[in-house]
Write a structure and sequence with these properties.
It comes from Amedibacillus dolichus. InterPro entries: Thioredoxin-like_sf. With 153 residues, the protein is of the alpha/beta class. It has seven helices and seven strands. Strand 4 and strand 5 form a beta hairpin. It is globular.
């Protein structure tokens, strides 16, 4: 697992971010890894975070999602769902592999690769501050509380 001193943001993600999001203008960056926006569980996670956009904006935190869908699929989905947050396409799943988010799962005797839904909180210089091992319904509140506590230190 990456340490706080080691930036573990995969380069493929940084390359796809808009120029103004790469530099340390914002105090925090939250990067959430989901499987596919077309899977209902991932769509629920995205809808959940959509409700918290004003709260993250107040704390000067950018929120990004990484999906293994193709860029055209993501753009169309964002348009249909009126989703305002950035979704980054990682079709070859390099960032998932770099962060060890692909795990084998056996179902009915067959082995499948499963994407683990994780989130990473970085400070403005892209240093890892927190790793959330599961994206749960209470994660946005946890992240907001962690940002507040990090600001106080």
């Amino acid at each position: 697992m990456p340490t706080k001193k080691t930036p573990c943001i995969p380069t493929i993600i940084l390359q796809q971010l808009p120029e103004n999001k790469r530099s340390p203008y914002n105090s925090f960056h939250l990067v959430c890894f989901v499987d596919s926006v077309l899977i209902p569980s991932s769509a629920r996670i995205l809808a959940l975070f959509k409700q918290y956009i004003p709260h993250f904006a107040l704390l000067d935190c950018d929120v990004f999602f990484v999906s293994r869908d193709q860029k055209a699929v993501l753009e169309r989905w964002q348009e249909l769902a009126a989703f305002p947050l950035s979704i980054i396409a990682d079709t070859d799943q390099r960032s998932y592999q770099e962060l060890s988010l692909i795990q084998p799962k056996t179902t009915f005797g067959k082995v499948y690769d499963v994407i683990q839904k994780h989130a990473f909180l970085y400070d403005g210089t892209w240093q890892l501050q927190h790793r959330y091992r599961r994206i749960t319904p209470d994660l946005p509140e946890k992240v907001l509380n962690d940002i507040l506590s990090l600001r106080l230190t």
